[in-house]
C-alpha cells in the first residue's frame, strides 16, 4: 500500500534536504500531517517561500535583506581586516564568539576538484579587488582544516603574495579534518587568538 500522493510528494521534497534520508523525511511528513494544523502548514510553507527573498551582500557574500549586510554597513567594524571563510554558516559561527570586529569575505565553498569545485566557482575575485584597491591591511584565512580548506588558503595566499598585506591563518586548535561550523566557541576563540603569519 502506498501513501496518498500529497504525502509522497512531501516525503520526496523533504528528503532533498541534507542529512535527511527517506525514513527521516517520512517521519517528518507524517508528523506534519498528524500534528500541524492547516494554518501551521501554511505558515511553514510561507517561511520556505520567504527565505528566497534573502539576497547576498555585494561586498562580502554574506546573506542579507538589502544590498549590503549589517556587518559590512556597521561603522564600528574595522574594514581593513577581512576574515575569509568558506561558508555563511562559518561566518555566523565566528560572529557568535563576539570577539572579532573586522569584516568577512565568504568564498562559497573550498577548492575541491574531486567535487567539481574549481577556482572560478568561488567568490575570490572580489577579495582580490579589495586588496588591489588598498582597502585591506590584513587577511585572516579561516578556511577549514581540511585538504580542501588548506588548498584554498594556499591558493589565496599565492594570489596575494605580490601585495604588501599581512596574511594570517587562524591557529588550529581545531582538529585537522574537522569543520569550523561544528567547533565549540572556546576552541574558535583560541584559534582566532592564536593566528599567525601564514608561511
Provide structural commentary.
The chain has a five-stranded mixed β-sheet with strand order 4-3-5-6-7. It has a two-stranded antiparallel sheet with strand order 1-2. The chain contains seven helices and seven strands. Helix 1 (5-14) crosses helix 2 (22-35). By secondary structure, it is α/β, with parallel strands linked by helices. The longest helix has 14 residues, at 22-35. 38% of the residues lie in helices and 14% in strands. Helix 4 (88-95) links the parallel strand 3 (78-85) and strand 4.
List the topology elements.
Layout: H1 5-14, H2 22-35, H3 38-50, E1 55-56, E2 63-64, E3 78-85, H4 88-95, E4 102-106, H5 125-132, E5 138-141, H6 147-159, E6 166-169, H7 185-193, E7 196-197
Parallel strand pairs: 3-4, 3-5, 5-6
Antiparallel strand pairs: 1-2, 6-7
Helix pairs in contact: 1-2
Amino acid at each position: 500500500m502506498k501513501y496518498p500522493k500529497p504525502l509522497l510528494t512531501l516525503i520526496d521534497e523533504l528528503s532533498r534536504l541534507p542529512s535527511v534520508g527517506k525514513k527521516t523525511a517520512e517521519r517528518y511528513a507524517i508528523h506534519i500531517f498528524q500534528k500541524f494544523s492547516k494554518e501551521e502548514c501554511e505558515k511553514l510553507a510561507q517561511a520556505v517561500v520567504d527565505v528566497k527573498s534573502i539576497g547576498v551582500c555585494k561586498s562580502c557574500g554574506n546573506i542579507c535583506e538589502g544590498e549590503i549586510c549589517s556587518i559590512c554597513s556597521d561603522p564600528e567594524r574595522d574594514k581593513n581586516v577581512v576574515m575569509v571563510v568558506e561558508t555563511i554558516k562559518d561566518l555566523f559561527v565566528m560572529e557568535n564568539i563576539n570577539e572579532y570586529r573586522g569584516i568577512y569575505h565568504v568564498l562559497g565553498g573550498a577548492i575541491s576538484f574531486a567535487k567539481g569545485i574549481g577556482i572560478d566557482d568561488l567568490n575570490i575575485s572580489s577579495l582580490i579587488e579589495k586588496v588591489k584597491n588598498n582597502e585591506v591591511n590584513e587577511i585572516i584565512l579561516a578556511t577549514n582544516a581540511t585538504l580542501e580548506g588548506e588548498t584554498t588558503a594556499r591558493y589565496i595566499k599565492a594570489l596575494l603574495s605580490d601585495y604588501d598585506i599581512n596574511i594570517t591563518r587562524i591557529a588550529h586548535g581545531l582538529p585537522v579534518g574537522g569543520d569550523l561550523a561544528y567547533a565549540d566557541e572556546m576552541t574558535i576563540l583560541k584559534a582566532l587568538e592564536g593566528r599567525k603569519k601564514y608561511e
